[in-house]
Amino acid sequence: xxxxxxxxxxxxxxxxxxxxxxxxxxxxxxxxxxxxxxxxxxxxxxxxxxxxxxxxxxxxxxxxxxxxxxxxxxxxxxxxxxxxxxxxxxxxxxxxxxxxxxxxxxxxxxxxxxxxxxxxxxxxxxxxxxxxxxxxxxxxxxxxxxxxxxxxxxxxxxxxxxxxxxxxxxxxxxxxxxxxxxxxxxxxxxxx
Length: 192
Known about the structure:
Mean pLDDT: 81
Helix content: 55-70%
Order of helices and strands: HEHHHEEH
Oligomer: single chain
């Protein structure tokens, strides 16, 4: 019976599981999306989320705990505390997402999955209240702008047509003058 057995052994020794957890989570933090097996992603999701929760409060104690858990990988811990932790500061959990891929792995036909950090930042409760007001005012402004465009458009059309009509006679006069000039010259040459 497996009552209250939380860990998955993944057919590895304890040292191998620990090293794999460090490597998998370090890769997740570095690339923010990795492809792995579904079982590995499910097994290491709690470890990744605990590290992100640790990184939400940047102090020396938490930084050293993260270094110890990730095996002194300073670059990954720095990114965790400088970028990833502040991104999820207002989010109360659920920092990772596991998406199953349609095609299994070719070698052993195991289910593959995308293990990724959630991209969206959760809006704070204050911004949720402000969003409907802004959207409503934006709709009113758009309606007013469209109403103004409708009232201005007939005037603009009449001005454009008048300007086009004025250009046409000027062009016709220029063409007529050009036609008359060569005719007069030809007539003068014939007489001479």
